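User: structure tokens for Dihydroxy-acid dehydratase, please.
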Amino acid sequence: KSASDDQKSSRAKVITPEQLRSRLWFDNPDNPGMTALYIERYLNYGLTGEELQGGKPIIGIAQTGSDLSPCNRHHTDLAKRVREGIAAAGGVAFEFPCHPIQETGKRPTAMLDRNLSYLSLVEVLYGYPLDGVVLLTGCDKTTPALLMAAATVNIPAINLNVGPMLNGWMNGERVGSGTVVWKARERHAAGEIDYEEFLEIVRSSAPSNGHCNTMGTASTMNALAEALGMSLPGQAAIPAPYRERGQASYDTGKRIVEMVWEDLKPSDILTREAFENAVVACSAIGGSTNAPIHLNAIARHMGVPLSCDDWEKVGFDIPLLVNVQPAGDYLAEEYYRAGGLPAVMAELIAQGRIHEDALTANGRTAGENYRERFTWDRDVIRPYDDPMREQAGFLNLKGTLFDSAIMKTSVISPEFQKRYLDDPQDPDAFEGKVAVFDGPEDYHDRIDDPSLGIDENTLLIMRGTGPIGYPGAAEVVNMQPPGELIRRGVFSLPCIGDGRQSGTSGTPSILNASPEAAVGGGLALLQSGDRIRIDLRKRSADILISSEELERRRADLAARGGYPYPASQTPWQEIQRAMVDQLSEGMVLKPAVKYQRIAQS
Ligand code: FES
Ligand code: MG
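Assistant: Done. Predicted tokens:
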């Protein structure tokens, strides 16, 4: 049974054909000249007057798939089912391309393009005759970019994920996309496998169309889009090649037409309660550290307060329920068969952790959609009282090193968590000397330099990689120890950085440090050999040098003209650098935030 068949919306139609937004373009007797101009060119490929002027909702399909965006490429097929759903419900589909964003293909980082895609979609949704829109999401940044734009414009909108790839397999073992790269890279660095074997392992992780099959940023953001209420329930986790994916596409097309008649807009769905539901869901699925950046950005464009403190307050003590890589063992197919997000939400609802009244895209509440939809597979989706791990949310750290940085607790080792976080009898804080790298190139050049004296108690620092320092904020805080340490069996060291980390990675890291070095954040004052203290219980992160010395270094940095960063390589890099906010604030374009609900303005 498809998602919308058993869950018919109980909402009333409140919009009449005369009130459709698209009529201002296509059927406006007050301005016959403009109507004639608008309508004549849209007829030229075979649309009929009845379709354009017959009181039918005009529905945009925001297409993110293309040859340049292989994760989302299957959307070019799924869009056909979306169009059929739209037509079946009495709407007219207008498919259009979005700026491509491929996580693994865009240099220097796909994050640079999230805000560009956002900006261009705002212009399209605002400036064209659209009554509603289907957002075709998938690869990491495509989901937040499209949701941010839907929030700003505020016309009825629903998201449809492309779905994850099938499981990867090699030698009888599951091979998860992204996650395997980090593991195979360690083996390659340790000399266990050669270049060709390395590539073969990584290739095996991508066996079909779809996005990453691990709980990386793509699976996370699509789960959160559903948890926010922006998609039909149960669709986020369907693997791309499964028949249910095509069926969900058809249902989504049908549903957006009804949403237009019901005038069900993002502002009705994206409430504070919805964002809290998504934060809770993020902990339970073991979501990516990119999630706070993107969710905070969507909230800012919707005008809903949401901070990294809220992430800790609402999400930290939620247990990890989903046994999927990188925090667990399985991949997308088992997760979907075990029930996907609905089974996770049922578990959270039973514990009173979800705002059940939050309205969702199908016109029903989160409670109505998900209550009692428990899993039958307790190995893949664990019960709340027997989880993979307790307290699996993010910590928000502060101190002289930064005002905010995120630590994902679901991937740190149990010993680490017990020693530094759980045991109140053990007052240990994490102290050590640092090795400081100015960007990924510097790290690659010097990580094996013995004069740095890196040992098992060193913390690796990556700076100059925030939204301004490394335009877009790169996913480069995935630093492995020097080869010498790896050969001795030390496979990871704690990392701190003002950049991001891939959601498919499992290193104990403190990420998204804001403000970044490039705008004078505390990381800019560090020197290799300094000692720092991280107290997870107090959520503090401080440089262990005197305040006089800190002030001296700060004055010194100012005299040198501030922390240096490379010149922009493209016009957009320069434009974005001049107006982008820090990672803790969602990395939004600051001047864009004041434009809210603009379709109603
Ligand atoms: Fe596109 Fe992971 S690289 S989803
Ligand atoms: Mg990523």
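User: Anything notable?

Assistant: The CA atoms of residues 387 and 425 lie 24 Å apart.
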